[in-house]
Fold this protein.
Amino acid sequence: MSEEREKVEEVRTAFLNEFDRFRDLDLSTATLASADEVSRELAELKVRHTGKKSAIAGTMKLIGRVAPEERSAFGQLVQSVEKDIVSMIEAAEAKLSEFISDARIERERLDVTLPGRRPRTGHLHLITILRQRIEDIFVSMGYHIEDDREIETDYYNFDALNIPDGHPARESQDTFYTTDGFALRSQTSTVQIRAMERRGVPIRIIAPGKVFRRDTPDMTHVPMFHQIEGLCVDKDITMAHLKGTVTEWLQRLFGSDTVTRFRPSYFPFTEPSAEFDFSCFKCRGTGQFEGERCRPCKGSGWIELGGSGMVHPNVLRAVGVDPGVYSGFAFGFGLERMCAMMYSLDDIRLMFDNDVRFLEQFR
Amino acid sequence: MNISYNWLKDLIDLKGNAEEVARQLTRVGLAVEGIHPHGDDLVLDIDLTSNRPDCLSHLGIARELSVYTGSPVKVLTEDVPDVPMPAVLAGDIVRIDAPDICHRFTARIVRNVKIGPSPKWLVDRLEAIGERSINNVADITNYVMHELGQPMHSFDLDKLEGGRIVVRRAAAGETITTLDEVERNLDDSMLMICDAVKPAAIGGIMGGLNSSITDDTVNVLLEVAFFKRESIRSTSRKLNLTTEASYRFERGVDIDNLVRASDRAVRLICELAGGVADDLIDVYPSVHRAGRVVSNDISAAVKRLTGLTVSTDECDRILESLGITAETGEEGEKSYLSPTWRHDIAIEEDLVEEVARHTGYENIGVELPPAFGAGEYQHNEPREKRLRQTLVDQGFDEAISYSFIDTRFDGMFDAVPGLLIHGGGDRFVTLNDSVIEGAVRMRHSILPGLLDAVRLNLNFQRRDVRLFELGKAFAAVGDGEPPNEQELFALVVTGGEVHQDRAMTTRELDFYDAKGAVEAAMAAVGVTDLSFRAADVQHLRRGQAASIAVSGEIVGSLGRLSDNIAAGYKFKQPVYIAEINLQMVLGSAAKTPVYRPLPKFPGITRDVSFIAGRDAAYTSMRDAILSQGSDLIKAVDFVDVYEGKGLSEGERSITIRIEYRSDDRTLVDSEIDGLHLQVLSEIERKTRARPRF
């Protein structure tokens, strides 16, 4: 049977010669394309050297020429050669396909740092953001939110607020007038009167809204701005309630370690009157921030915010409330000034320029 | 106002240094804004409220401090000689013809003075508080004003014709050249200090040039007077002339302080400029009576308004220190006399404030008012909040523009429905004047503000802009009625579609982006029956303009900004705008959704395309389909529109999807073939659109 064996060896040798380039395949410099090419060639080689029509399968036909007692050994030989061939090809295939699959994954590797796909979102105006936050606080404290006319009669803008004809505050030239004699409200205190007329007392309201003053626009002045006015009238209301209420909402806005300070002042519609300050939200009242003079409070540790006081008896009388029975407090402050301090704005005119580069800084 | 620490020490024994004094003053409402050194002195910069003119002097500040120090103000304990010239003789020199506005007038003649420089101490004192030295007599009047709070004026007696004073209103057409060398035209409301012939000074405001003290002056007439506040204020406004004197007179000086001030000045003149003083002339036609404030239990009143517990004795001590003395009437009624220098003490609450600020606001408690009830937002706020958030989510930034706009926008924009409600007269609300050039109209549309914002952003190379604004617009009503105010909602869209953090826009925005935003906004406030119709709107480009209606009622407009307005702004890219009367929209309640059972059986969808002219509207095709009234037609939706190759000029192909479905069985095609054909021919009949196969 040596002839037949030789034939098998020939087939093996022929395969090994052909397979040589696939043995110890070096893919270190391969590309996906070259690997694909090699893979195709290997597949071709596989077709030729495996399967029923392959040379090694053909050697099985020689088994008839082999002596019967050697047939078993011959068969084993052929099978073992065939197995070697298949396993060598499969090993090369596996190596290739792993490389190809790795290369494919590598090719589809993403830059996960590229921006996500989403339409640009817009921004609420800074004033709206702050107004909503403050309204939320006061609603949770049992206050009703109110607003009313922006163009008022002198009665609501002045008389009912204890600013009679001839009063300096009335002649201060601060007020815009329409040609038919109406006033653009110069404070949202007008809403105190409107709301008490509507709702009567007891009352707890917050009145946010636009107000107008004849100030030429500059870094710190604008002729239109937003105020929030608060009013609480009931039996037995004292200045302690004023201090408590103002302190409470400022603490909710700026943190529970916020401290308030009340200083005697003067407003026609309150008596006694007070201005209120709060400990700076940035330096927490120390006047120093990161080793430098704190900017929002100018190093004082205090931020001056607004005016307040006990509602003047003439104001209560104007809406038919007996100041002998009821008392109340009121307070007011400007939102633009507050925003300017909170965000270190050096020019409040930006608030009404509607420059998108400004608007998109806040949310 | 500047207050010298050394000067204060002359008037009152102080406790503590300048910082301590500043702290005490700030605590009682006289805010010390700063302390600045000046030589060996310290100067306190005090911010005063307008109700405290009595504190516009070292005396006034000392008086406030005396409550704290417990020591009296020295000048107030000094006697003032009170030997006026007999009225008969005085009348030859001073006559008041306008006693309604000049309540008291004192004059004193000092003869043989020598005008010259002031001594160093006087110059130093004035310079410390920021005043310039002029000459001894002028400096003395200035000095006494800052010390005692009483403005005064010195005349060169020899330049007063007739050597006398007549206090009267100016005659119409009279003029005076004031010390600042400005000739001033007077009217008959203005109080003048005149000589026998002509005005010599504008009472309480500024002296005349021709009667002023010069280096050659020998005889001086010193005027110390009290004028009605309103009169000084009015004259000061009319002449646009404010001085240290007018500032004090219009806020109120102390009518009982005139003689002391005059005496102080005259003694200084005699001391520093030589001279001999005549007797005091004091013309005081009707003597001022102190105001009386009834308060039977001041301690209780303090408690009631401030929560502070202050004994009656302590209340009285504080008030007494401030010169507010208690008095008990015959029937046991207790009242407090308002001192002549305090024009702000009229009611019990005023007394409470005095007690409270000197007891210290820091001693007032901190507590919340008792619970009252649930809080509540404004009626429309929840819906407006959703509208704002919806637009923000869609990429819009919220704008706030000024409510006053330029007159050049007059008639440029059609007003939203519901704003103009009257006939006759000017429909705009106009301001008497503005602080922004030309902006005297109260806006009747938000659009001018938004378009200005677009221009600003384009100028800063931001060409992709989406803005919205909520706010009021105004229209005159007339007949003495206040203007109509309506809450509007407006938006503007221009440029391309921006993606977050991406440099390139994906496509140019168009009419339908603006329309989509309007739809989203209206959906956000609960509008379900929204419709659009082609319309002619003045500020919108013809053919790209629509009216917006809610439940059939027009509430606003939408479209592309007209070419001529766009040209005025130099816009080179299309700008789309919409404006809605939000108040009208929010006038009806939001619709609550009603549940509809989910479909149980599959439906059949058919897409149909029509070739039509531009005038055949999609909604009319949809309406034609729905008008079949078949309950098998469950939905009609827009698929696509195509223009261009294959179609002739002015034609477009529009594709519509119809969904047929039955609620009780699965439909088969043959069941709806007939209905579908009917639908097609109905569209063709009603819109002249041809089916395209």
